[in-house]
Design goal:
- The chain is built from four helices and five strands; from the N terminus they run αααββαβββ.
- The protein is globular, with a radius of gyration of 19 Å.
- Helices cover about 40% and strands about 40% of the residues.
- The chain has a three-stranded antiparallel sheet, covered by helices on one side. Strands 1-2 form a two-stranded antiparallel sheet.
- The longest helix is centred in the N-terminal third of the chain and has 25 residues.
Length: about 130
Amino acid sequence: MRKLALCFLLLSFTFWSCQSFKTSQKDAKLFESISLLDQYMQNNDNKIINILSSDVSFGHSNGWTQNFDDFKKDFSSKKVIYKEIKQIEISEIKKHKKFASIRRKIQVSGLYKDQSFEMKLVLLEIWMKKNSV
């Protein structure tokens, strides 16, 4: 009986390991896009506009919702300049058809109106697959 339980446990672990690998390979493009978003924010690169949907909105903890035009204006004004954006963890990934929701934590530092800041942010991002990306 013990050998059977051990065999089942080993088989379950092997199956679980294979599933994790397949999932991470399948999500490579998504993780690449997330990394690109962080890179564009950190480098204050205007290419960020190209990866955002025109109907994007940013909900902030103070209740303010920022639309695409507000974001573009604030981003180009350099009101906030990020020096470092470091991902701490991805806590959840949910997929449905061509959409994925990601919950993750990041550590950010930078300048807001010439005042230094450093904080941890918890994000919920909705990603849409478009043209295989």
